[in-house]
Amino acid sequence: ETFTTSRDDLAFTLLITWPEPGNGLKGVVLSKDGVDFQVTGTSNRIKTRSGDTYMAITLRQPYCNENGECVKSEGDWTLHMQPDFKLSNKFSYNLFVNADNASLASEFRVSQPVPGIGHPLRLTARLTENGKPIQGLTLGSVHAVLSRPRASLGNVLSKAKIEPVKPVQTLAVDPISAAGRKTTAMLGDPVLRESVLAAFKPSVEKELLLKETRPGLYEADYTDTRVSGIYSVHFYVEGESAGNGKFTRTFSSDRYVEVVVDERATFESAKVSPMTPCRHAGGCYEITLTPADSAGNLLGPGKAGLINVTQDFGKVLEPISDQLDGSYLCD
Fold this sequence. Notes:
mainly beta; four-stranded antiparallel beta sheet; 4 helices; 9% helix
């Protein structure tokens, strides 16, 4: 792996993570300008910490190895590492590079001015040096890779015809809701497994180039918000500034695109039936609601806690019941 540090970076930390406890790395070496830095060496300017699923490496200026060989801060580094392959013949990992720089500042944001499916996400990167905007970066210097699920979880769970797995009676963990147990049953079903994974895994990917809209402010809109769920965004900056020279910045963020319930569509879905016998003077009724947005995307299952009846309309006799098909039953 290669990365770039700038002229005024006082220190940097590499964080390498992997998902499988028990896997790990060996033969980790950093190199720059023909000089090697043994990560497990004796230099007091290289600090290393590691655990079952991570390794963190920190270097501070001056960048000198245990033999007294030094390099300048500005330029490209190469990280060499060899996986242990203790669990399989492949090794998945993430690499994060965090630089300590007193003059460069970066701010990244993912927002949705109008919430809900079908409304664009706004991606923003603000870059400054000594408090002044870093402007004039060429198109492509600031870009982002965004990925989203292929389906809305509420729609997928509602349509599936499968019985939830039985509740597990244990004090060691929180109880799993009926919607969660239905999801578990779908994950264990070879036919339904892929449909529920389509709602969990961000698999539709797109690269966006952020354009400078104001000095030092780079923006882009992502419009393909056709499903609810988690949208993962990875920002990348490869630029050059007057004081720091070449610099890179990366940042990762998630944004949840929600189902915004449409009042008219939801009330039109209501089915009201009288209940007998009834001890209340105003009468007793069974109400079934299917909360959805204007395009028919379903809020649930699993959202019974968001539904309530105000005191102006009566009193709820029983806890609201999740029917696991997108509808909720209220007595």
